[in-house]
Amino acid sequence: MKRDQLAWMWLVLAGLLEIVWATTMKLSNGFTVLGPTLVTIVLLIVSFGLLALSFRVLPAGTGYAVFTGIGAVGTVIVGNILFDEVLTGMKLVFIGTLLIGVIGLKQVTGGETA
Prior knowledge:
Blueprint: H1 3-27, H2 34-55, H3 60-83, H4 89-109
């Protein structure tokens, strides 16, 4: 596997973990419930570690935008499914815009490295 492919894999995994730690943070009730609090802290550290590894190869601006985009879109979806958070038509439009931006950044970054 090429170095940039590995960096993108780390970045996507970091973003997916962001969805999980954001969800467990919600479940921690402001860090007052021990189990979800500990899971949040561990996953946050792993997620940021993977993000840092991806930054060795990818530009920081692109990497961070993709990381937060994955986390934001995924967390909105999980919030709707698990916590019955309202998902309006306009929210869907803006989530779609975020998703298009993340995909676009991946496309234009190509062989660009840090």
